[in-house]
Specification:
about 325 residues; alpha/beta; two-stranded antiparallel sheet; single chain
């Protein structure tokens, strides 16, 4: 294998500095930071599935500040309307005309918190903007900022009052990452850091600090650095053998007897894009099988569905996917 190109090495060093900056605020979520950077560098979108309290909002906010990107958060609820996300036209009583009020979707990083709590019409409005990267308000069409990344979250245990994302909409998320609880060592560090936070004194009163008060400082890089990193992803070499492995994995999901729904062509595209971005983050100018294995769950699991018979037998999507990955390299 050839050594990494100097430019890709410099870019991977810069990307590592973003991970280091995030690690100063968030403990034990390095993989999520990596997935966020992969989505950002490949113009994809990320779905995070995990229990409450795992610092998802803190993490996304920290990454956005490190990259000097605009960040907004929407809490999805049952009474949310599409106009609450994309914006609307408002009648100006003074002029008698309409003026445009742009919604929070006009940002660089949008955190859609608990996306499955909103009605399908609201989900559809968001996902349409994700796909087309533009919004129509009245007679005008507006392009969304560049870059534009949606990071959506959903709680895997509270299903009461939720609207499950259908497969066609899940397919629009490039990656779906499942967060886990921190290890005891990481949790100890979280608690120790929290004890050191102190208080904020203001207007004659005081309030306990939170981890959000630690976010700040200068951005790690500039917009030009992000553009250069995005371009560098397209310079990562993909061998014909790796390409055939990707095709084989996707094809096996469509033919497996325990799966009634296999991966779409978007899955293969996502595997290639994500693998190239991961290679860059790890300082390589070529992809390796490790990239495919590391990303397969995040790319494929939300795109496949087990048959009724497989569910009755106690099989799991993860088990089937591992079986497919083992067969593809044997």
């Amino acid at each position: 294998m050839s050594a990494p190109h100097p430019s890709s090495g410099a870019t991977s060093t810069w990307l590592q500095s973003i991970r280091d900056r995030t690690g100063e605020i968030v403990v034990g979520q390095d993989i999520v930071v990596e997935r966020t950077l992969i989505a950002l560098l490949t113009s994809g979108h990320l779905l995070l599935e995990g229990m409450p309290g795992l610092a998802k909002t803190l993490l996304v906010n920290t990454v956005s500040k490190a990259l000097h990107l605009d960040f907004r958060r929407i809490q999805f609820t049952i009474d949310l309307l599409p106009s609450d996300i994309v914006g609307t036209e408002i009648l100006d009583e003074k002029t008698g005309g309409f003026r445009t009020h742009k919604g929070p979707i006009f940002t660089n990083l949008l955190l859609a918190d608990e996306i499955n709590r909103a009605a399908p019409k609201v989900q559809g409005a968001l996902l349409e903007a994700m796909q087309e990267r533009k919004v129509t308000l009245g007679a005008e069409t507006y392009s969304l900022p560049t870059p534009f990344l949606v990071i959506a979250t959903q709680n895997p245990i509270e299903q009461s009052g939720t609207f499950e994302l259908p497969e066609a909409q899940l397919d629009r998320f490039m990656l779906c990452h499942r967060l886990s609880y921190p290890t005891p060592e990481e949790e100890e560090e979280i608690l120790r850091r929290n004890m050191r936070l102190g208080v904020n004194k203001k207007d004659g009163g005081a309030v306990a600090k939170t981890e959000f008060d630690l976010i700040g400082g200068d951005a790690v890089g500039t917009t030009e650095d992000l553009v250069a990193a995005t371009e560098a992803v397209h310079g990562i070499h993909v061998s014909d053998v790796f390409l055939k492995h990707v095709i084989d994995v996707v094809e096996r999901t469509r033919q497996h007897p325990d799966l009634e729904l296999g991966c779409s062509p978007r899955a293969g595209i996502a595997l290639l894009k994500a693998s190239r971005a991961r290679a860059l983050i790890h300082g390589r100018d070529y992809v390796i099988p490790e990239d495919l294995f590391a990303l397969a769950e995040d790319v494929c699991l939300h795109r496949i569905r087990l048959s009724y018979e497989a569910l009755a037998e106690g099989k799991t999507p993860k088990g089937i996917l591992n079986e497919i990955l083992e067969a593809s390299v044997s």
